[in-house]
Design goal:
single chain; 5-stranded mixed β-sheet; two-stranded antiparallel sheet; 7 strands
């Protein structure tokens, strides 16, 4: 597999996310997302139009901060923070994107509420090396009522996605998943 293809895919995803989520340049963003974009997120309506409509409906204070990004073949996984979108808590997300010819064509995500320093049992932030400033976290504890089961399911999904990309898994909940063949094999 060409690492330059993977590096290009990572750079394209970073640019696409910045263009749509931070700059809100919908015309420029169209060149990154396929018109036939396949959406698997429970939070977003189908297709590119569903994604763009969601972002248009969110306050202009929305900010996306990327963290770790990895790529293998046509898949890119990016770990990042969504803030300023109208909820009392930031979201930490692992977005899984399938690319084809430099275009985002399919998307899955795992999302969890960002823990404050006081809530973090590990004492470590969920993204980067520091917690967000306190004003962003004020009053989060009373709003975080999602059960631990949702968190555990998210971790299971993320682990499965990584194992799938590594070729260790070929099915999900009993359904066979066929990945595109790797180049050079």
């Amino acid at each position: 597999m060409s690492s330059s293809k993977e590096e290009k895919n990572k750079a394209l995803v970073l640019e696409a996310f910045d263009t749509l989520f931070n700059k809100r340049d919908y015309t420029a963003a169209e060149r990154f997302w396929s018109p036939n974009y396949i959406q698997h997120s429970a939070h977003i309506e189908p297709g590119r139009d569903g994604l763009f409509s969601l972002i248009k409906s969110i306050p202009s204070t929305l900010k996306y901060e990327p963290g770790v990004i990895v790529a293998e073949g046509d898949f890119v996984i990016i770990h990042g923070r969504f803030s300023g979108f109208g909820l009392p808590v930031n979201w930490i997300a692992a977005d899984i994107i399938r690319m084809k010819d430099g275009i985002l064509i399919e998307h899955w995500d795992v999302i969890q509420d960002e823990a404050t320093k006081e809530q973090s049992k590990s004492g470590n932030p969920m993204l980067g090396d520091s917690f967000p400033p306190e004003p962003l976290n004020k009053g989060i504890a009373q709003h975080q009522k999602r059960p631990v089961a949702l968190y555990a399911d998210g971790i299971k999904w993320l682990n499965w996605a990584v194992e799938m990309l590594e070729g260790k898994k070929t099915e999900f909940h009993g359904v066979q998943v066929k990945l595109p063949a790797k180049e050079g094999k």
